[in-house]
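Progress against Task 2.4 (sequence-to-structure conversion) is shown through the following example record, which the project officer requested during the mid-term review.
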Amino acid sequence: MIIGIAGGTGSGKTTLTERLRDEFQGDASILYHDNYYKSHSDLTYEERTKLNYDHPDAFETERLIADLQALRRGETVACPVYDYTIHDRAPETLEVRPTKVILLEGILIFENQALRDLMDIKIFVDTDADVRILRRIMRDVKHRGRSLDSVVQQYLTTVKPMHEQFVEPSKRYADIVVPEGGRNLVALDMIIQRIRSHVLGT
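Structure tokens generated for the chain above:
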């Protein structure tokens, strides 16, 4: 079972994804669309900071699709790893093994039809824009080494317009819309029950 978890930046996708992984432990693995950002080692750091990371073209989605298909066939894949502190792909890869449940997370995973068609359940995490920007500031400044000015500038120039152009419209493809993501305990419990029935084969 492949479960897609989409939503805007800072919406609570990761919280929901990690709670589901923790619930099913050895039966669930995660692929993050962010790890499939294209490599830009040919550019300087300054040039990489100016790229639009919120457009579908920023991702190597074809590789993600191939990896999902491989996992579905029961094959282990070498997932790329993205380093936010250098705005580029890291040299190492991450081994992802096939499990009963594959959790796929990303802001733009519903934008691509070929990727959408691989998903058995599509969940969109819906959170107010003011909450999302505050969470993004906290995350990027605390954990990704960004300055406050750079986070705000990126939000206004690419994150917000790309959200309005690509992310928000993709909500219509969702099977379930979850306000507040992993903090929505009622929705979380319903999703867990649905996955559990699949894992147990009932």
